[in-house]
Specification:
Order of helices and strands: HEEEHEEHEHEHEHEEHHEEE
Bound molecules: iron/sulfur cluster
Number of strands: 13
Largest sheet: 9 strands, mixed
CATH class: Alpha Beta
Structural class: alpha/beta
CATH topology: Rossmann fold
Radius of gyration: 20 Å
Strand content: 25-35%
CATH superfamily: P-loop containing nucleotide triphosphate hydrolases
Protein backbone atom coordinates (compact mmCIF):
# COMPACT_ATOMS: atom_id res chain seq x y z
CA UNK A 1 0.00 0.00 0.00
CA UNK A 2 2.76 2.43 0.97
CA UNK A 3 4.83 1.41 -1.98
CA UNK A 4 1.87 2.17 -4.24
CA UNK A 5 1.40 5.52 -2.46
CA UNK A 6 4.96 6.36 -3.37
CA UNK A 7 4.38 5.33 -6.96
CA UNK A 8 6.27 2.03 -7.01
CA UNK A 9 4.38 -1.20 -7.53
CA UNK A 10 6.99 -3.85 -6.93
CA UNK A 11 10.25 -3.68 -5.03
CA UNK A 12 10.68 -7.41 -4.63
CA UNK A 13 10.19 -7.23 -0.83
CA UNK A 14 8.94 -10.18 1.11
CA UNK A 15 6.20 -9.76 3.71
CA UNK A 16 7.33 -8.24 6.99
CA UNK A 17 6.52 -11.45 8.89
CA UNK A 18 9.46 -13.07 7.12
CA UNK A 19 11.99 -10.75 8.72
CA UNK A 20 13.86 -11.97 11.74
CA UNK A 21 16.24 -10.06 13.98
CA UNK A 22 19.31 -11.02 11.99
CA UNK A 23 22.11 -8.49 11.84
CA UNK A 24 22.25 -6.46 8.63
CA UNK A 25 25.29 -4.49 9.79
CA UNK A 26 27.78 -5.44 12.48
CA UNK A 27 30.55 -2.93 13.13
CA UNK A 28 33.35 -3.93 15.48
CA UNK A 29 36.11 -1.61 16.65
CA UNK A 30 35.28 0.72 13.76
CA UNK A 31 37.88 3.47 13.45
CA UNK A 32 38.42 6.39 11.10
CA UNK A 33 41.43 8.64 11.62
CA UNK A 34 42.37 11.44 9.24
CA UNK A 35 45.79 12.98 8.90
CA UNK A 36 45.63 16.74 9.36
CA UNK A 37 48.12 19.57 9.41
CA UNK A 38 48.31 21.75 12.49
CA UNK A 39 49.04 25.45 12.49
CA UNK A 40 48.72 28.13 9.81
CA UNK A 41 51.66 26.87 7.77
CA UNK A 42 50.62 23.23 8.10
CA UNK A 43 54.05 22.03 9.12
CA UNK A 44 53.17 19.69 11.94
CA UNK A 45 50.90 16.76 11.30
CA UNK A 46 48.28 15.43 13.63
CA UNK A 47 45.61 12.76 13.63
CA UNK A 48 41.91 13.61 13.72
CA UNK A 49 40.20 10.77 15.60
CA UNK A 50 36.81 11.16 13.96
CA UNK A 51 35.62 7.66 14.88
CA UNK A 52 37.65 5.80 17.45
CA UNK A 53 36.85 2.13 17.91
CA UNK A 54 33.07 1.89 18.02
CA UNK A 55 30.95 -1.26 17.83
CA UNK A 56 27.27 -1.58 17.00
CA UNK A 57 24.74 -3.81 15.30
CA UNK A 58 21.80 -2.86 13.09
CA UNK A 59 19.26 -5.66 12.92
CA UNK A 60 16.78 -6.35 10.13
CA UNK A 61 13.66 -4.22 10.44
CA UNK A 62 15.10 -2.12 13.29
CA UNK A 63 16.37 1.43 13.72
CA UNK A 64 19.64 2.40 15.31
CA UNK A 65 19.67 6.07 16.31
CA UNK A 66 22.98 7.89 16.68
CA UNK A 67 23.11 11.13 18.66
CA UNK A 68 25.73 13.60 19.81
CA UNK A 69 26.80 17.18 19.15
CA UNK A 70 28.45 18.25 15.90
CA UNK A 71 31.92 16.76 15.65
CA UNK A 72 31.07 13.62 17.65
CA UNK A 73 31.58 11.30 14.65
CA UNK A 74 27.97 10.64 13.59
CA UNK A 75 28.35 11.64 9.97
CA UNK A 76 31.71 9.89 9.59
CA UNK A 77 30.05 6.74 10.96
CA UNK A 78 27.30 7.13 8.34
CA UNK A 79 29.90 7.52 5.57
CA UNK A 80 31.73 4.39 6.76
CA UNK A 81 28.50 2.39 6.69
CA UNK A 82 27.69 3.75 3.23
CA UNK A 83 31.14 2.79 1.98
CA UNK A 84 31.94 6.44 1.17
CA UNK A 85 34.96 6.25 3.49
CA UNK A 86 37.24 3.30 4.17
CA UNK A 87 37.90 2.55 7.84
CA UNK A 88 41.42 2.87 9.21
CA UNK A 89 40.64 0.09 11.69
CA UNK A 90 37.95 -2.37 12.70
CA UNK A 91 35.44 -4.15 10.53
CA UNK A 92 31.97 -3.76 9.09
CA UNK A 93 30.09 -6.96 8.31
CA UNK A 94 27.13 -6.81 5.94
CA UNK A 95 24.94 -9.86 6.51
CA UNK A 96 28.00 -11.59 7.89
CA UNK A 97 30.42 -10.64 5.08
CA UNK A 98 33.34 -8.29 5.66
CA UNK A 99 32.99 -5.20 3.46
CA UNK A 100 36.74 -4.98 3.01
CA UNK A 101 36.75 -8.46 1.44
CA UNK A 102 34.01 -7.79 -1.13
CA UNK A 103 34.94 -7.94 -4.82
CA UNK A 104 33.63 -5.39 -7.35
CA UNK A 105 30.33 -7.22 -7.83
CA UNK A 106 29.91 -7.56 -4.07
CA UNK A 107 30.56 -3.85 -3.59
CA UNK A 108 28.02 -3.01 -6.27
CA UNK A 109 25.42 -5.17 -4.57
CA UNK A 110 26.26 -3.55 -1.23
CA UNK A 111 25.80 -0.07 -2.69
CA UNK A 112 22.34 -1.07 -3.88
CA UNK A 113 21.45 -2.61 -0.54
CA UNK A 114 22.45 0.43 1.52
CA UNK A 115 20.91 3.73 0.47
CA UNK A 116 21.02 7.21 1.96
CA UNK A 117 18.66 10.10 2.48
CA UNK A 118 20.38 13.31 3.56
CA UNK A 119 19.11 16.63 4.83
CA UNK A 120 20.20 18.69 1.87
CA UNK A 121 17.91 16.73 -0.43
CA UNK A 122 14.80 18.30 1.04
CA UNK A 123 13.10 21.62 1.19
CA UNK A 124 9.54 20.36 1.49
CA UNK A 125 7.52 17.27 2.32
CA UNK A 126 6.83 16.39 -1.31
CA UNK A 127 10.50 16.50 -2.24
CA UNK A 128 11.24 14.38 0.78
CA UNK A 129 8.80 11.71 -0.34
CA UNK A 130 10.50 11.72 -3.72
CA UNK A 131 13.93 11.25 -2.13
CA UNK A 132 12.60 8.37 -0.01
CA UNK A 133 10.98 6.78 -3.09
CA UNK A 134 14.26 7.14 -4.96
CA UNK A 135 16.12 5.36 -2.17
CA UNK A 136 13.50 2.61 -2.11
CA UNK A 137 13.67 2.04 -5.86
CA UNK A 138 16.81 -0.08 -5.45
CA UNK A 139 15.16 -2.41 -2.88
CA UNK A 140 17.62 -1.57 -0.11
CA UNK A 141 17.92 -3.43 3.16
CA UNK A 142 19.29 -0.47 5.07
CA UNK A 143 18.67 3.26 4.65
CA UNK A 144 20.99 5.78 6.26
CA UNK A 145 18.86 8.75 7.30
CA UNK A 146 21.18 11.66 8.09
CA UNK A 147 19.15 14.59 9.46
CA UNK A 148 16.21 13.57 7.22
CA UNK A 149 13.65 15.98 8.68
CA UNK A 150 15.67 18.91 10.06
CA UNK A 151 14.76 21.26 7.23
CA UNK A 152 11.01 20.69 7.56
CA UNK A 153 8.10 22.29 9.42
CA UNK A 154 7.04 20.42 12.55
CA UNK A 155 3.76 19.12 11.05
CA UNK A 156 5.45 17.80 7.88
CA UNK A 157 8.27 16.40 9.99
CA UNK A 158 5.81 14.19 11.90
CA UNK A 159 4.20 13.01 8.65
CA UNK A 160 7.54 11.98 7.17
CA UNK A 161 8.70 10.24 10.35
CA UNK A 162 5.43 8.30 10.49
CA UNK A 163 5.79 7.41 6.81
CA UNK A 164 9.30 6.09 7.48
CA UNK A 165 8.02 4.01 10.38
CA UNK A 166 5.15 2.60 8.30
CA UNK A 167 7.57 1.74 5.48
CA UNK A 168 9.79 -0.05 7.95
CA UNK A 169 6.89 -2.10 9.31
CA UNK A 170 5.68 -3.01 5.82
CA UNK A 171 9.00 -3.63 4.10
CA UNK A 172 11.25 -4.78 6.94
CA UNK A 173 13.74 -1.96 6.31
CA UNK A 174 16.56 -1.19 8.70
CA UNK A 175 17.49 2.42 9.42
CA UNK A 176 20.59 4.15 10.68
CA UNK A 177 18.99 7.36 11.94
CA UNK A 178 21.12 10.40 12.67
CA UNK A 179 19.59 13.64 13.91
CA UNK A 180 20.06 16.53 16.27
CA UNK A 181 16.35 16.33 17.11
CA UNK A 182 16.49 13.95 20.08
CA UNK A 183 12.72 13.64 20.35
CA UNK A 184 12.67 12.41 16.75
CA UNK A 185 15.50 9.96 17.41
CA UNK A 186 13.76 8.60 20.51
CA UNK A 187 10.49 8.28 18.54
CA UNK A 188 12.11 6.45 15.62
CA UNK A 189 14.78 4.25 17.18
CA UNK A 190 14.81 0.83 18.78
CA UNK A 191 18.36 1.33 20.05
CA UNK A 192 20.27 4.57 20.59
CA UNK A 193 24.02 5.08 20.52
CA UNK A 194 25.37 8.28 22.11
CA UNK A 195 28.70 9.45 20.69
CA UNK A 196 31.16 11.97 22.06
CA UNK A 197 34.42 12.83 20.28
CA UNK A 198 34.47 9.64 18.21
CA UNK A 199 33.58 7.27 21.05
CA UNK A 200 30.38 5.61 22.20
CA UNK A 201 29.65 6.77 25.75
CA UNK A 202 26.28 5.07 26.18
CA UNK A 203 24.02 2.75 24.21
CA UNK A 204 20.91 0.76 24.86
CA UNK A 205 17.17 0.45 24.40
CA UNK A 206 15.96 3.78 22.97
CA UNK A 207 13.03 4.41 25.29
CA UNK A 208 14.92 3.47 28.45
CA UNK A 209 17.99 5.48 27.51
CA UNK A 210 15.97 8.60 26.63
CA UNK A 211 13.90 8.44 29.83
CA UNK A 212 16.62 7.44 32.28
CA UNK A 213 20.03 8.36 30.84
CA UNK A 214 23.01 7.14 32.86
CA UNK A 215 26.03 8.85 31.31
CA UNK A 216 26.32 12.55 32.31
CA UNK A 217 26.64 13.52 28.63
CA UNK A 218 23.47 11.61 27.68
CA UNK A 219 21.72 13.16 30.64
CA UNK A 220 22.66 16.67 29.50
CA UNK A 221 21.65 16.00 25.88
CA UNK A 222 18.23 14.61 26.75
CA UNK A 223 17.54 17.18 29.48
CA UNK A 224 17.04 19.73 26.72
CA UNK A 225 14.87 17.43 24.57
CA UNK A 226 11.10 17.37 24.72
CA UNK A 227 9.73 15.24 27.57
CA UNK A 228 8.06 12.09 26.30
CA UNK A 229 5.06 12.73 28.57
CA UNK A 230 3.37 16.10 29.29
CA UNK A 231 3.59 15.50 33.08
CA UNK A 232 7.29 14.73 32.91
CA UNK A 233 9.54 17.56 34.15
CA UNK A 234 13.25 17.67 33.59
CA UNK A 235 15.73 20.24 34.69
CA UNK A 236 17.77 21.35 31.70
CA UNK A 237 21.49 20.77 32.12
CA UNK A 238 23.56 23.37 30.29
CA UNK A 239 26.98 22.04 29.34
CA UNK A 240 29.82 24.51 29.49
CA UNK A 241 32.20 24.97 26.58
CA UNK A 242 32.34 23.43 23.13
CA UNK A 243 33.21 19.92 22.02
CA UNK A 244 37.05 19.82 22.06
CA UNK A 245 38.94 19.18 18.84
CA UNK A 246 39.22 15.52 17.82
CA UNK A 247 42.77 16.45 16.76
CA UNK A 248 43.75 16.66 20.40
CA UNK A 249 41.09 14.98 22.56
CA UNK A 250 41.28 15.39 26.35
CA UNK A 251 43.08 12.69 28.33
CA UNK A 252 41.18 10.05 30.27
CA UNK A 253 37.46 10.50 29.80
CA UNK A 254 37.12 12.80 26.80
CA UNK A 255 34.10 14.44 28.39
CA UNK A 256 35.86 15.38 31.63
CA UNK A 257 36.50 19.13 30.90
CA UNK A 258 32.72 19.63 30.55
CA UNK A 259 31.37 17.03 32.95
CA UNK A 260 29.55 18.33 36.07
CA UNK A 261 30.49 15.09 37.91
CA UNK A 262 34.18 14.91 36.95
CA UNK A 263 36.55 13.40 39.55
CA UNK A 264 40.38 13.52 39.57
CA UNK A 265 40.60 10.00 38.09
CA UNK A 266 38.46 11.07 35.12
CA UNK A 267 41.35 13.06 33.60
CA UNK A 268 43.73 10.10 33.96
CA UNK A 269 41.84 6.95 33.12
CA UNK A 270 39.64 6.37 30.13
CA UNK A 271 36.45 4.62 31.26
CA UNK A 272 35.59 1.43 29.36
CA UNK A 273 32.10 0.65 28.11
CA UNK A 274 30.54 -1.67 30.65
CA UNK A 275 27.16 -3.28 31.09
CA UNK A 276 25.44 -1.10 33.66
CA UNK A 277 21.98 -2.38 34.55
CA UNK A 278 21.22 -3.59 31.04
CA UNK A 279 22.93 -0.99 28.88
CA UNK A 280 26.46 0.01 27.97
CA UNK A 281 27.92 3.05 29.72
CA UNK A 282 31.49 4.42 29.78
CA UNK A 283 31.75 6.41 33.02
CA UNK A 284 33.74 6.11 36.26
CA UNK A 285 30.61 6.95 38.27
CA UNK A 286 29.63 3.30 37.74
CA UNK A 287 32.96 1.74 38.63
CA UNK A 288 31.59 0.03 41.73
CA UNK A 289 30.55 -3.61 41.49
CA UNK A 290 26.97 -2.90 42.58
CA UNK A 291 26.19 -1.47 39.11
CA UNK A 292 28.18 -3.77 36.89
CA UNK A 293 27.22 -6.95 35.11
CA UNK A 294 29.36 -9.07 32.77
CA UNK A 295 29.48 -7.30 29.42
CA UNK A 296 26.96 -8.71 26.91
CA UNK A 297 29.14 -9.50 23.92
CA UNK A 298 28.25 -12.77 22.29
CA UNK A 299 30.92 -14.55 20.27
CA UNK A 300 31.37 -12.75 16.98
CA UNK A 301 28.85 -10.06 17.86
CA UNK A 302 29.25 -6.43 18.78
CA UNK A 303 27.87 -5.05 22.03
CA UNK A 304 25.04 -2.92 20.72
CA UNK A 305 21.97 -4.56 19.30
FE1 LIG B 1 32.09 12.57 33.97
FE2 LIG B 1 34.13 11.15 34.93
FE3 LIG B 1 31.96 9.91 34.00
FE4 LIG B 1 33.63 11.12 32.33
S1 LIG B 1 34.09 9.35 33.61
S2 LIG B 1 31.41 11.22 32.29
S3 LIG B 1 34.24 12.90 33.54
S4 LIG B 1 32.08 11.29 35.81
Amino acid sequence: MLARFLGFHSFGYAGSEQYSLMAVIEAAGLTKHFLARRGIFGGERGVVRAVDGISFTIEAGRTLGVVGESGCGKTTTAKLVLGLEDPTGGTILFEGRDLQGLDTAGRRLYRRSVQAVFQHEFSGGQRQRIAIARALALSPKLIVLDEPVSALDVSIRAQILNLLRDLQAELGLSYLFIAHDLAAVAHMSHTIVVMYLGKIVESGDARTLARTPKHPYTEALFSAALPSHPDERREEIILSGEVPSPLNPPSGCRFHPRCPHAMPSCAEQEPALADIEGRLVACHLYDTDEHRAPIRIAAGASPVS
